[in-house]
Amino acid sequence: MTDDGFWKTKKLRAFSPAEWEALCDGCGKCCLVKLEDEDTGEIHYTDVACSLLDSGLCRCTDYANRKKRVSDCVTLTPENIDRVKDWMPSTCSYRLLAEDKPLPAWHYLVSGNREAVHRLDESVRGRTVPEASVDEDDLPDHIITWPR
């Protein structure tokens, strides 16, 4: 847990690289395959996880090389968060701070407990299927409502 509450006192663009990375709550929701309704622009989450997601740990298995290995992986930055935040879950720490909202009580920077996100079912742990096991045409059958 960070004692200084940097996320309360700094703007996203002022975060150090370490602070930026520390903001991730480890939920894994951003690594779910999403579908966009062409008519409405609405984003629909599926239970299909990126091929690099370790769904037990809710972490990328090759974080350093993720963009090379998964061409449509979005690397969040302070510069692009405003453009891509609608693709992020409503509970995403980056999105919340970009929208001037507080971090949730279960976030480890607030609670001091990295398991709280999982214990309170705010993560994808145990709830996904591997991307390789789903045909692209079947993705609409995997639309879910549980990520908020």
Note the main attributes of this structure.
148 residues, alpha+beta, two-stranded antiparallel sheet, 7 helices
Description:
The chain is α+β, with helices and mostly antiparallel strands and 148 residues long. It is 22% helix and 12% strand. The chain is built from seven helices and five strands, in the order ααββββαααααβ. It has a three-stranded mixed sheet, with no helix packed on it. The radius of gyration is 15 Å and the shape is globular. The relative contact order is 0.22. The mean pLDDT is 93.
Summarize the structure.
This protein is an alpha+beta fold and 148 residues long. The chain has helices at residues 6-9, 17-22, 66-69, 81-84, 93-98, 108-111, 116-119, and strands at residues 32-36, 43-49, 53-54, 59-60, 129-130.
